[in-house]
Amino acid sequence: MYSWNKTEDRVAIVQMNAALRHAQLELLSAHCVTHQLRMRFSIEDLARHGQRDVLHKSVETARFLSEYYSSIQDNIPSEEETISMPAPDLSEEKVREGIDLLSSWLRQQRERYFPTAVPLPEQHRALMGRYFSRSLLDQVRVVELDGQRLPNPPFYEEAKTLLANLPDVTHMASLTFLDVVVFNERLEERSLFHSLVHAVQVQVLGVERYAELFVRGFVNTKLHFTVPLEAHAFSLDSKFVVPGHESFSVEDQVRLWVQQGRYEWKREPGSVHNFSKNSQAEHEI
């Protein structure tokens, strides 16, 4: 059994948690695709007309995952279980400070990496052209870090005292700094697609508005994956990886969510930050 007190075990524990985060991403994508399937087709039609081998394999996989994660849950020591505590009621001043810090950091990182960034490779431009405008693909630049990884922003340590679940930038596949996408490892198509969704969101919303929606979204949902801006990107990239899917316009989808207020929030009496019903709608296309 690993121990954090052993230096040699710490590396393995960090690697384990990075793999766990990756698994969580894949499970979230599977959840989004399954939800789209559920919204479109009835259980009876799926059972009657679905391809038998695919159905059996899907059911078997879901059962295995359920049993596996349930067994982990059963073995979590009670003293280490996360206690659900209300998040601190952040003042509007603190929220605005976070928005300013995030928007400034995005701009700073864009300026830092732009000189070494390169245009999108032609093979990736051809594929992404099915989903993104030519003008966006002409503008975007990419960087693949070699032997290093993006560090957390300088304001992270203080921010984590208020928002405990902030994701470590080091473990992310890529980050979008306005029109510059930086990959912690090598460029992969799914990560590129996800990052380009964020580039479209920034283009449509503007960097200040994007930062505001992201910060307020995190304050409300407490998790990176459930921030509407992020959830929408996951929803779209889960459609992107489905074999044989039709092309679609990411910009149209982003503008639709803006029009419907699904990135938005509203304030209710007695609560500083609450999402509107539209933003809590299921993540579907």
What is the end-to-end distance? 44 Å
The gross shape turns out to be globular
Question: Could you list the spans in which at least 5 consecutive residues all have pLDDT below 50?
Answer: 79-87, 266-285
User: Structural class of the helices, strands and pairings?
Assistant: mainly alpha
| Main sheet makeup | 4 strands, mixed
How would you name the oligomeric state of the polypeptide chains in this document? single chain
Order of helices and strands: HHHHEHHEHEEHHHH
Radius of gyration over alpha carbons?
A: 20 Å
Strand order of the largest sheet: 1-2-4-3
Summed up, the domain count is 2
Helicity, as a percent range: 55-70%
Give the helix tally.
Answer: 11
Number of strands: 4
Q: What is the average of the pLDDT values?
A: 80
Which range does the strand content fall in?
A: under 5%
If you had to describe this structure to a student in words, what would you say it looks like?
This protein is mainly alpha-helical and 285 residues long. It folds into 2 domains: 7-80; 92-280, no CATH class. Helices cover 56% and strands 5% of the residues. The chain is built from 11 helices and 4 strands, in the order ααααβααβαββαααα. The chain has helices spanning 7-40, 43-49, 52-74, 92-113, 122-128, 134-139, 156-160, 189-205, 207-221, 228-240, 250-260, and strands spanning 118-119, 141-144, 174-177, 180-183. β3 (174-177) and β4 form a beta hairpin. α4 (92-113) crosses α9, α8 (189-205) packs across α9 and α8 (189-205) packs across α10.
